[in-house]
Amino acid sequence: MTDKIYDLGAGFWNVRGSFLKDGVTDMGGQCSLIKLESGRFIFLDSYALTGDIREQVMALTNDGKDVEAVLNVHPYHTVQCAQMAKDFPQATFYGSERHRKQVPEVQWSDDLVESDTVAQRYPELEFAVPEGMYYIAPEESVHTGSLLVYHPASRSLHVDDTFEMPPSKLVNMVQLKINFQMTTKQALKDEPNAGKTYCDWVAGLAHKWRDTSNFCVAHSGLVKFEMGEFEKALLATVDAARPALEYS
Q: Exposed site from 162, 166, 192, 194, fewest CB < 10 Å?
């Protein structure tokens, strides 16, 4: 997969690239670059930038010197963190507890990426952690939980494995434009009504971020929605998934 960078306006760029699973299957990967009101920059997620894309990013960020932080928003996307830290040594690196354990060579901030402290540091963004679901699941193979980030100025939503675009085994409805990740059921917390809590959270998110135009999904791509389409698509998905998640 060829690396590409998309200027989504209002100081938001989405970088699409490759991620080889087991060195064979290209699952695709992403990071997003955001220009803050201060004029400095932050990244959402780590990605090893190369070639023309790296040159473009370095040109935007004063050879990387204006990058103040990298917010690693998915606990299970850790492979490229070390390279990102080498590329932007002056940046503060935020991650989850799992990032710290998996990539100890990176000097992580004491503040966890999902903390209120980090959210308050970046008022240009809105953050959401799934409710009713483990952010870091007890089962290592379950990668559904992630920190979702919305940039109102560009109407861009950056999300990793929590939602996806290809047809899911959980919701067998190919006409839906958004699907839940296939391990969603396994990611639900072991507590009463976890499925309902999660579905209600998704529905609330659809309303709150209804103006989403640019849907940046880790392994699926960049999807453009017309006004009102995102809310409709996500509500259709959660309505279809409720029986499997609430009553199984």
A: 192
